[in-house]
């Protein structure tokens, strides 16, 4: 009987400043939380922490690593002065020209070229480096609502951005600036409402039957 081979991820230490984002925004509140988590870890656990928080990436034209998740963590570590992270390579596409590479990434839902207002932009407008990611307060709101039990974690790519757009249509920006914790409290029942049933991770009760 043939043995089943277990495919192991290809791991590489990569300089954070060389990582290419596949999205345009992050939630700065969430980045701040991850910075605090890094600072509060046991002093001798840096290697263990980084080893357990590997960042998935696709190798693109020119050998550039395009990260497809954990942008908040990578930016937080960068701002904390960490120079390298462990990257798990999920695909190697360095043989493709830029146009074909972008098409492949888009087809696999590995790109999210939406700005801080939730508007789709051209792929050429993606920031070149993590430090250029803009703040989207609604992305921070979506992250906090999930932590508060408003919806469940989902493997669907860019789940939190879908939820951010849901809240963007229902909560005024000034509310996030002046009363963020109250906005979270208001958003949790919104997330559980029937209105949000189409979103990944919805945890409400379906009374349609």
Descriptive account of the structure:
The chain is an alpha/beta fold and 209 residues long. The protein has 2 domains: 10-134, Conserved hypothetical protein from pyrococcus furiosus pfu- 392566-001, ParB domain; 137-196, Ubiquitin-associated (UBA) domain (Helicase, Ruva Protein, domain 3, Orthogonal Bundle). It contains 8 helices and 6 strands, in the order ββααββαβαβαααα. The strands form 2 sheets. It has a 4-stranded mixed sheet. Strands 2-6 form a two-stranded parallel sheet. α1 packs across α3. The radius of gyration is 18 Å and the shape is globular. Mean pLDDT is 91; it is low at 1-8.
Write the CATH homologous superfamily of the largest domain: Conserved hypothetical protein from pyrococcus furiosus pfu- 392566-001, ParB domain
Q: Based on DSSP secondary structure assignment, what is the total number of beta strands?
A: 6
- By helix and strand content, what is the structural category? alpha/beta
CATH topology of the largest domain: Conserved hypothetical protein from pyrococcus furiosus pfu- 392566-001, ParB domain
What helical percentage do the residues reach? 25-40%
Counted by DSSP, the helix tally is: 8
Strand content: 5-15%
Q: Report how far apart the termini are.
A: 49 Å
Mean pLDDT: 91
Strand order of the largest sheet: 1-5-3-4
CATH class call of the largest domain:
Alpha Beta
Gross CATH architecture of the largest domain:
Alpha-Beta Complex
Taken in chain order, the helices and strands follow as EEHHEEHEHEHHHH
Write down the domain tally.
2
User: pLDDT below 50 for ≥5 consecutive residues: which ranges?
Assistant: 1-8
Major beta sheet, specifics?
4 strands, mixed
* Radius of gyration over C-alpha positions, nearest whole angstrom: 18 Å
**Cα shape:** globular
